[in-house]
Amino acid sequence: MFKYICKRLLYIVLTLFVILTATFFLMNKLPGTPFDDERFSMLPPEDQALVLEQYGLNEPVYIQYLKYVQNILKGKFGESYVYAGQDVSDVLTHRIGPSVLVGAQAVLLGLTVGLILGILAAWKHNTGIDYFTMIVAVLGVSVPNFVLAALLQYFIGLKWGILPVAFWESWSSSILPSIALSVSVIAMIARFIRTEMLDVLQQDYIITAKAKGLSKLKVLMNHAVRNSIIPVITILGPIIVNIFTGSLAVENIYSIPGIGSLFVDSIKMNDYSTIMAICICYSAFYILVILVTDVLYSLIDPRIRLISNRAE
Amino acid sequence: MKKSALSFILIFMLVFSLVACNSNTNTNTDNTKQDALNVYVSTEINTLIQWASSNDTSFTILNNAFEGLYRLDTNSQPQPALAKDYKVSEDGLTYTFYLKDNIKWSNGTEITANDFVYAWLKQMSKEATNGYSFIMNDYIVGGNEYFSEDISAEEVGVKAIDEKTFEVTLIQPTPYFQRLTVLPMFFPLNEEFVTSQGDNYGLSADAMIYSGPYVIKNYDIASGCNLAKNDKYWDTDNVAINDINVRVIKDCGAALNAYNAGQISKVTLQSTDVPAYKDSEEFHSGSNFRTDYIQFNTTNEKLSNVKIRQALSYAIDRNVLVDVILADGSGTGVGMIPYGMNGDGKKTFRELNGDINTFDAEKAKQLWAEGVEELGYTPELTILVSDENVVKTIATFVQSQFKANLDIDVKIDSKTLKARNEIMDGKVSGVTYDMAITAWGADYDDAMTYLDLWTNGTPYRGNYVSDEYNSLVAQAKQETDNQTRTELLLQAEKILCSEDMVAAPLYYRGFAYLQKPNIENLTVHSFGPPIEFKYANFK
């Protein structure tokens, strides 16, 4: 196992390097500079050159690239072009908190409610509960989270005045965005679990369990649910990445100082160092989650082996 | 089975609606506290470092936490602030500012002329990353040379004669120089404090000292900042509101909800929201010193004929654009210089020069026919725009006007802002533009902020080169007599927007907003520092 993880970590470093390189060169194809174009283009060419030189942007792309890689190896993301004087790593650490809090709550809520709904739906197959769950699931998948976010804000925040409309001030500000983000998770998990459960409930071992006189609940919890949960881990990885990395729309609607809007803003403003840093962090996170998923897999399901032991 | 599902859903909906009805009773709780003013900005506060700040959001905070020689009053006229008075030499080239005696930084240090010298020199050098060095270097002796590090600081025309006397030497007479000093770029900085903070200056609230009516208590780029009354400010007795919370809300809909929920006291409306609130007593509107216009590329063969360009301008009914399409307080673009901008000191520029760009379908058709004949073919035109919502709406309107009044099909080419700028700057090889919708916001309250733009002949300004125009602007820059100077500028605008039709103004960007009725004198300016908290008070 240890050897396997080491090998995977090596691949991760290689993958990140490829991503870093590709992003760097693609990003340099973005039109414009990190400066206010209208005013920047009005400077005489020699002054423009001076400003570019100040930021090291006058050098050929490959030199800039080598310098960047050098900095990254030293663990430095560099200074932001847009947030004057701020280190990109400071900006990131500052912004990642809100996104992770909202994301974690959304995943937790989505997972809990999704599981319950999914299990109930399968258990009470073809009843009102089942239909209700499926309606929720279809709605959850088809209604975009920003529409839901706006509706929640309007009704719960404005009309009923239960929770804050926007701003990032107390924990209560994080409830509505978490709910808005969780609905698609609920929908996905519920549908997935239901299908799996229905499949599992047809298996021979369930019949065996019933035959040996176990109560309905025990059969469900000990045999059916446990076996249905395995595939959920597969989809959970991407869901977590997707939600933790922030949602531009939901962050904007609730004025959350998160990382999703930072990413989009940095691209719009050609803030090269921030774009790079976020790309690297996103990718690293994604790859790590995939690794963790694979490892978890082998722990939960003994049938899955990470290393093929042909000798045995 | 089906029946039970249906009844389940019905029960669910019933319960849900009951909850909804019940909660309706406690709506519209007004959370606005009397002692704190809650406002918002629509973009992040990228930076509060004065020499790195370039957008309205940063200016909003800077203008209220810092102060310059002069400050705009509720009528947007400059009033003595840190300066008590100034004197101009007879040739109009030397400005001597006398500072007030009782002015202090928020840490108790005296504000002196040296603080101005330090801040201004910083803004004039390469260190200034806000791209605004030109706003000093174009006027002050030695500015450009200092920027390119050809001369030392002592040779630049900013001097501290003594602790309280600050002298500035200009390259040419600049009647609006006093009005420039209200801009954040011209605010003082305390050298000792700034240097002691090193790279941390401006990154957090305690890494700054303040000279304005408010101090910043805390500051976060993405969520906003809290301001408190500055008790060291010279005029602190006349500052009514103790606390101001500035939040960042990027989404217009969210801002409106927050306003209606009483979480903020003022909200800017989008055009689409205007009809719903137009009759509310909380509704206000105005227009900025910001002109949106069509830039014609004069060296593009298809638009090289002036009659073609004039026809296009005459074909646009700007009143419909402003009243029906935008309906947010925007002003009809009847000339390059917006309404309200200073003319000769007595009348506004617009009053003096009248309506230059009007709608005349007949004239448009006739000019178009003549132009086509002179050109030898009917040009197929494309209009380059950025992909912002408002701009696309305007482009579609303009397109429909060309179709209706000239019977021509103009294509719309929509690009991201950065990509549009690259094309307009001529940085994309082999790609040029016919005409483009762009805008310019005034840096200061004088027509020169617009008219100077077209003297460089750059692709962004339509490659326009005219000796007559350039000489008018150059003469105006040298002229010491205000009357003659104004005449020269009036003439220049006529050439730009009529005789040579280099740019066709469309409208002056408006702003419509709602404001809680308990607030007074929350002043919004058409240019420069966007908003003034100093004079605001609760009724």
Task: Provide structural commentary.
The complex is a heterodimer of chains A (312) and B (539). Chain A has helices spanning 2-27, 37-40, 45-54, 61-73, 88-123, 128-142, 145-159, 175-201, 204-211, 216-244, 248-253, 259-268, 272-300. The two termini of chain A are 16 Å apart. Chain A has 2 domains: 2-73, no CATH class; 96-311, MetI-like (MetI-like fold), CATH 1.10.3720. Chain A is mainly alpha-helical. Chain A is flat. Chain A is built from 13 helices and no strands. In chain A, α5 (88-123) crosses α8 (175-201) and α10 (216-244) runs antiparallel to α13. The model of chain A has no long low-confidence stretch (mean pLDDT 86). Chain B has 539 residues and is of the alpha+beta class. Chain B has 2 domains: 11-249 and 516-538, D-Maltodextrin-Binding Protein, domain 2 (3-Layer(aba) Sandwich), CATH 3.40.190; 287-511, Dipeptide-binding Protein, domain 3 (Roll). In chain B, the strands form 6 sheets. In chain B, strands 11, 12, 13, 14, 15, 16 and 17 form a 7-stranded mixed beta sheet that branches. A 4-stranded mixed beta sheet of chain B has the order 1-10-9-8, with helices on one face. In chain B, strands 4-5-7-6 form a 4-stranded antiparallel beta sheet, with helices on one face. In chain B, β8 and β9 form a beta hairpin. The longest helix of chain B has 22 residues, at 2-23. The radius of gyration of chain B is 26 Å and the shape is globular. In chain B, 47% of the residues are buried. The model of chain B is unreliable at 1-33 (pLDDT under 50). Chains A and B meet through α2, α3, α5, α6 and α7 of A and α1, α8 and α15 of B.
